[in-house]
Amino acid sequence: MAFIKEESEDVKIEETFTVKQEDLQEQTDLMMLKEETHQQNEVEEKHQDIPTDEKPTLTKKTSSHRRHLNYKSECNFSCKQSRKSFSQKPNLDVYMRVHNREKHYTCKQCGKSFPKIHFLKAHMRIHIGERSYTCQQCGKSFHHARNLAVHMRVHTGEKPYSCPQCEKSFKQNYNLEVHMRTHTGERSFTCTQCGKCFAKKQNLKIHMRIHTGEKPYTCTECGKSFRNKSTLNIHKRTHTGEKPYTCTECGKSFPNKSTFNNHMRIHTGEKPYTCTECGKSFIRKSTLKHHLRTHTREKLFACVQCGKSFTTKLSLMNHMNGHTGTIVFTCDQCGKSLTRKDSIKRHMQTHSGERFRCSECGKDFKHKRSLSAHMKLHNSEQSPQHLGLVHTNAGIFKTAVFSRSLAVHSSEVYL
């Protein structure tokens, strides 16, 4: 066992690596290996140069050639993977070490191994925190030059890796490989706990935290923890107020791309999530999930105080505010406080004077839900009474509530 002490100019620390003694002879062995391979190739080339219709003259050169052929026939040591043969086992061992890329250089801090010493040196930058490669445009730094090169494509917009099936392009080849699985349907990474499959190993790793309860990313502002870093970054925008995604139609901004995409469907009218039970479609997948519980009658969220169950977590939270008396939302116009976000939104409309107008008849309403109920009158061939709705000076009301008062003025009651 020998010790090699090196001082790298790139990594300004002294490193001591433990290297197997046979590695010190690897270059010599490889030279022998190359020499033997060269001899074999030379023999094959000379053999091919002899015309098939000529009998070679038995000269000293031919005799040497035959010895080479005999030498070739004695190559009894073969690599099973590449079928390459060698006359001596040590040469095969050297070839196999190169072929299998044995990793003799091991990081003492994390145990990761590498086939070459300069790979280990580059890896050490992660532990010492050295980021030698800095982007001149945004100042972001990287451990390796290749990472900086990939990052620069963010600024240049370069996406050199294109999908041959849908022409979608990517900055990295790895991202293209992962994308191709959406076409092939390949999901190679399976959760051993619940059987769910994933196209990316990283997605499986994040998913496993659902089972373990691990939330390694914590917000320094409020202490809230998350399973993945991207969710934490989006959460931080609630503190900074950053909303980088802006709608070109109405100017409304959003803190994350998924919320922005959902909003854009309001303008396009796209509703990609359809209920298989009743055919109703939705803008958001989460809304479809909640809707499906109306068919299954599933109520997963139960109040610990009174036992009442709800189909959504938000409904439970709103209900819990009734027990605790928590006042969450306050009107900045009049100071009125309410426990539900949707209630405060409706209340704010009384100050703003915002109205919802029917595009069919021009009638105005204070609340969107009132307009929605009104629109059913236009969209249905049934009469308002059959729909369970009546018109009054105060708006639209359910006849079930007012049927008794109407009975005073009329002998006919609509139920």
UniProtKB/TrEMBL annotation:
Report the main location listed first in the record: nucleus
Q: Spell out the coiled coil positions from the record.
A: none
Stretches with biased composition (Basic and acidic residues): 37-57
- Provide a GO CC annotation, any one: nucleus
Region called Disordered, residue ranges: 37-65
Molecular function (Gene Ontology), one example: identical protein binding
List keywords of the entry alphabetically: DNA-binding, Metal-binding, Nucleus, Repeat, Transcription, Transcription regulation, Zinc, Zinc-finger
Q: Which residues cross the membrane?
A: none
Q: Which Pfam families match?
A: zf-C2H2, zf-H2C2_2
Q: Where in the cell is it found?
A: Nucleus
Domain called C2H2-type: residue spans: 77-104, 105-132, 133-160, 161-188, 189-216, 217-244, 245-272, 273-300, 301-325, 329-356, 356-383
The entry sums up its family as follows:
Belongs to the krueppel C2H2-type zinc-finger protein family.
**Protein purpose:** May be involved in transcriptional regulation.
Protein name (database record): Gastrula zinc finger protein XlCGF57.1-like isoform X1
* Encoding gene, per UniProt annotation: LOC137487279
